[in-house]
Amino acid sequence: MPISSQDERQDSVRFSGTVEPGKKEELTYDISKGARVEELRVRIYRGAELDLEVFPFVERGAGRREPLVTLAGREAIVGDADFFEFPVSVPVDEPQKVGVEAKHVGSEFPLDYQVTMVLDYEGGVDRGLFSMFRGWL
Q1: Cα–Cα distance, 98 to 68 (Å, whole number)
Q2: Which pLDDT score is estimated for 122?
Q3: Which of these, 97, 96, 48, 95, lies nearest to 76 by C-alpha position?
Q4: Are 99 and 90 spatial neighbours (Cβ–Cβ below 8 Å)?
Q5: For residues 3 and 117, what is the distance between their CA atoms, to the nearest angstrom?
Q6: Is the sign of the CA dihedral 26, 31, 32, 38 positive or negative?
Q7: CA 54 to CA 17: how far, in whole Å?
Q8: Distance between start and end Cα atoms, the chain
Q9: 70-97 pLDDT, tens digit each
Q10: Which of 17, 3, 86 is closest to 52 using CA atoms?
Q11: Cβ atoms within 10 A of the Cβ of 120, count?
Q12: pTM of the prediction?
């Protein structure tokens, strides 16, 4: 279950879970108003040995998912006792969702992960446009 802490400008959403061997889980968070995903932090705990695939996404409707991070040569983030920080700037409109899919492709021991997304509501999905006009005024 995602955990959210919100102020007027930002919302920090944390997804965490434990995935059993051969299983996958999906966690989502409904966006209440236009925003941008500004930071993405992924932690894969020790023992994963590249057997846990973590895929953070924006669901754009009708099950269409857009990855928050594009990786060369992989569709998901993998690691073992690793912490990744990705500077991103992905617009998300309501009633869209952000989420994470975690898939355990190994055969031993449950594996843990945590994903944190920072949603910035300052200007919402049009923030880049507002910033450009502010520079002209």
Answers
A1: 9
A2: 80
A3: 48
A4: no
A5: 10
A6: positive
A7: 11
A8: 44
A9: 888 888 999 999 999 999 999 998 889 9
A10: 17
A11: 16
A12: 0.83
